[in-house]
Amino acid sequence: MDLMQRLDETLRAMRERVAVRPQIGVILGSGLSTLAERIEKPCFLPYGELPNMKRSTAPGHEGRFVLGPLAGVPVVCMQGRLHRYEGHSMEEIAFPVRLMRQMGIKTLILTNAAGGINEGFRPGDIMLLRDHINLMGANPLIGPNEEALGERFFDMSRAYPEALRNTAKRCAQELDIPLKEGVYLATSGPNFETPAEIRMMRSLGADAVGMSTVPEVLAAAHMGLPVLAFSLISNLAAGMKNEVLSGEDVIRVGLSRAEALSALVSAVIARI
Ligand code: HPA
Predict the structure, then answer these.
(1) Is the pLDDT at 81 greater than 70, yes or no?
(2) Which of 11, 32, 168, 265 has a CA 20 to 30 Å removed from the CA of 230?
(3) Does residue 214 carry a pLDDT above 80?
(4) Partner residues linked to 185 by β-bridges
(5) CATH architecture for segment(s) 83-271
(6) Quick check: helix, strand or coil at residue 201?
(7) Is the pLDDT confidence value at 203 over 90?
């Protein structure tokens, strides 16, 4: 089956089970899944129950779609995302983004946990993505281009539109949530970086580093789908402090700031 047929098949399976027609798609990062609890009368669709969808195996990722109204707007939320380091191909990671687009979303919002590279950042800070650097060594658009989704060559200079970022900044100000802004650099993981890699990334212009988001943003940009993305800075990157990095700490800081980030994303959803 080709990509469009697989998307159709999965879309049909979803529509047999839920009537919600989402306007906004949200992908939730490590330890940040509480936003989905704000959805009223949620419908749950585990990835494993849908044809063509891969399961998420990462800790802190439930692995299901949650659909329903959030702040009065119909949304589809991915509670748990797919990562390259789990062994998923970039195309498999892009699939649910394409699916949400076929469901009718007009905007994609992403959250992730990331290590802070910018020396002005502290654990617990929230960073709005202004741009990204792809050092994953892979790209979901490699291979035959699906013209029905987008053009072979596409612009990335407006992938994170300024108007959406301004809306997020206004909402953050109203909620009294300090908001940083910067460039997210993606690696494949699963190891945290070496201190030498972090020094290189800083000199390349990166403010934060993580292991996700870029594949989904590339798939969205290919389809002309506007993106708003937030990093929760869960730790200072390797070598910046005399401490050993751990996945548990990433989840712990995520959980401690999940409410603030959820409040911010809900406010943005109500506004766009
Ligand atoms: N590096 C890469 N990914 C991450 C980090 C980090 O320091 N923290 C959370 N995700």
Answers:
(1) yes
(2) 11
(3) yes
(4) 133, 209
(5) 3-Layer(aba) Sandwich (3.40)
(6) helix
(7) yes
